[in-house]
């Protein structure tokens, strides 16, 4: 880990040319270091119509009202969540590498590719991006918080945005990966609050940022913490849904 993780150009590129994380073919020079244009095109993007609560795409033709099964009974504290990709195929593999294989640099390219979605880009514009925090013990083990990296990259590329680390995780929770919908909600309930000494501005819009939205439980609980601290406009976003 450490500084070697982010060595992407220069001398090391001459010896070990970078391959696209999706196509596994050598990557040309460009804004993204590990995701080629061809690789980005293979990512399973989410398109409208999508749920106006959690951002999941509806399949087929929409007729009348339709309840989204992915946010059923959640009643989220965030107003709307938007996601750029489905967590399947190459997008899922990239997320796995970011979280579990020590590849935080891939988050930069996935975030850059996400902003090609006009709905996702407009959703972030002008807001304060708040990454979902990791418990300090988990962060030490992993060496980084991927949500922080994603939020920082999105803020750097989106007009009027900035990232602020306003939340902390008060106690460790078990991994959400193998938990069901209700178990996920109970697992993170009350797990987050605002960092001591930090405050929120009721006049600003906050968007909680994570890598993946599955049931929305984590983003919901982070939004609860921001609202309890005085935030009035709280939304959410994740790179992937699923």
What does this structure look like?
This protein has 242 residues and is an alpha/beta fold. It has one domain (21-54, 76-241): Rossmann fold (3-Layer(aba) Sandwich), CATH 3.40.50. The chain has helices spanning 11-15, 37-41, 89-100, 106-114, 118-124, 136-142, 146-157, 181-188, 217-228; strands spanning 81-86, 128-131, 162-163, 167-169, 192-194, 205-213, 233-241. The strands form two sheets. It has a five-stranded parallel β-sheet, sandwiched between helices. Strands 4-5 form a two-stranded antiparallel ribbon. Helix 9 links the parallel strand 6 and strand 7 (233-241). The relative contact order is 0.17. Residues 7-12 have low confidence and may be disordered.
Walk me through the topology.
Elements (H helix, E strand, L loop, with lengths): L10 H5 L21 H5 L39 E6 L2 H12 L5 H9 L3 H7 L3 E4 L4 H7 L3 H12 L4 E2 L3 E3 L11 H8 L3 E3 L10 E9 L3 H12 L4 E9 L1
Parallel strand pairs: 1-7, 2-3, 2-6, 6-7
Antiparallel strand pairs: 4-5
Helix pairs in contact: 4-7
């Amino acid at each position: 880990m450490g500084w070697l993780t982010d060595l992407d150009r220069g001398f090391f590129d001459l010896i070990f040319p970078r391959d696209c994380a999706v196509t596994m073919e050598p990557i040309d020079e460009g804004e993204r270091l590990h995701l080629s244009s061809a690789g980005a095109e293979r990512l399973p993007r989410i398109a409208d119509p999508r749920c106006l609560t959690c951002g999941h795409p509806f399949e087929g033709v929409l007729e009348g009202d339709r309840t989204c099964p992915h946010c059923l009974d959640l009643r989220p504290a965030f107003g709307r969540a938007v996601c750029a990709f489905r967590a399947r195929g190459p997008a899922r593999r990239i997320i796995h590498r970011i979280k579990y294989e020590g590849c935080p640099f891939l988050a930069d390219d996935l975030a850059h590719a996400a902003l090609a979605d006009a709905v996702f880009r407009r959703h972030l514009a002008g807001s304060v991006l708040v990454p979902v925090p990791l418990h300090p013990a988990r962060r030490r083990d992993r060496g980084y918080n991927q949500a922080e990296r994603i939020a920082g990259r999105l803020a750097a590329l989106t007009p009027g945005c900035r990232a602020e680390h306003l939340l902390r995780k008060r106690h460790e929770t078990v991994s959400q990966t193998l938990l069901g919908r209700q178990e996920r909600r109970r697992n993170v309930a009350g797990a987050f609050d605002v960092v001591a000494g930090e405050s929120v501005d009721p006049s600003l819009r906050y968007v909680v940022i994570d890598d993946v939205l599955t049931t929305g439980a984590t983003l919901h609980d982070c939004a609860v913490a921001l609202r309890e601290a005085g935030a009035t406009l709280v939304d959410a976003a994740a790179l992937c849904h699923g």
